[in-house]
Design brief:
The chain is of the alpha+beta class and about 100 residues long. Helix content is about 35%, strand content about 15%.
Length: about 100
């Protein structure tokens, strides 16, 4: 999970020392930098998106997604489907991340 020490404001980069595919540098767009700059720092937690338990990262995305689906009355869309849809759209309109 991403930690504040991986975020380099000067280089506009998120550097992951050990992702699923190994070392990875992710260039960040201006909106991403703005979002990162507006996230709160939680004392005693070095994760960018902290969990509910002290010192942990957030792990509740599935619960949030279930609430969104229920509110939108969509039952057959997985969060992973959104990832593929976003990637396909980005490739179609030639978005550079």
């Amino acid at each position: 999970m991403a930690k504040w020490q991986y975020f380099n404001r000067d280089r506009r980069m998120l550097t992951l020392p050990d992702s699923k595919t190994g070392f990875k540098e992710i260039p960040l767009s201006e909106p991403a930098i703005d979002a990162m700059n507006n996230l709160p720092l939680v004392p005693g937690n070095d994760h960018i998106i902290p969990g509910f338990k002290h010192g942990t990262h957030f792990i509740g995305i599935q619960d949030v997604w279930e609430r969104i689906r229920k509110a939108a009355d969509i039952n057959d869309v997985r969060i992973h489907d959104l990832r593929h849809a976003f990637g396909s759209y980005g490739a179609t309109v030639n978005i550079c991340f």
